[in-house]
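Handoff note, outgoing to incoming analyst
You'll be picking up this chain. Sequence as last confirmed:
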Amino acid sequence: MKLFWIALFGTILGCLLSTAPSTSSNWQQLGTGLELGTFVAPMPSPCGDRKITVVRIDPASWKFSLLTAAREGKRARTARQWATEFGQTAVINAGMFREDGFTNVGYMKCGDHLNNPHFNADNTMIAAEPTDPKLPNFQIIDREAQDWKTLITKYRYVTQGIRMVDSHGKNRWAEQPRMWSMAVMGMDKSGKALMIFCRSPFTVHAMIDMLLGLEIDLKNAMYLEGGPEASLYVKTTAREFEGYGSYETGFYESDKNDRAWTLPNVIGISRRE
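Most recent structure output, in case you need it:
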């Protein structure tokens, strides 16, 4: 109950910011099959500008990679560093990780490398780069609606995480008062991938409702990371954007984080040849 009142007070403070609802966006073409959109959250937040940044990716034009520190020199890197070192145009968190600083909390496969061979109870998986040409280059698998055991054997990259939006477009995150900055991976109804970042803290349930209300045609989504570690980096000749989180209830209750944190596991994209 104490956390509820803290969150409520924070939301009231957020009203000092502009609270006029807005779903306006400004999509910028970054290249063939790649766009960056900026939205303003229609709800108040305790801090920040309430901007939601979305990188929309056509998997027909862009190749996905899952990069892990466990496989790449046992060294975590910032999103920018991952992108620069491995030639990635955009990079986002690949999921939450264990206390060892390397292992994904759920199953994770990177080609022939198993970052984590064990499954947990989380109901969503990102799968990319199929070995079967009949399958889409990218999808977000709902374990309760799809034959996930077969599907994951037919993709080079798989990472498991918490389901935010199920395959029917429903909000599957229970309401709770805690809030934080957020990194999310979504898929729209046409099959395009969506890398989503918001520094301003919101509850996850509220963020999902907002994403479903934005003009991004969201089909389903998986939670990647929250707080200071939530990151998104994209760089093309048209635009460079670097976003890193800050506020997290019970951990870092401030908007003062001024640096990108290092990440052990990331999802990146590069242009298909």
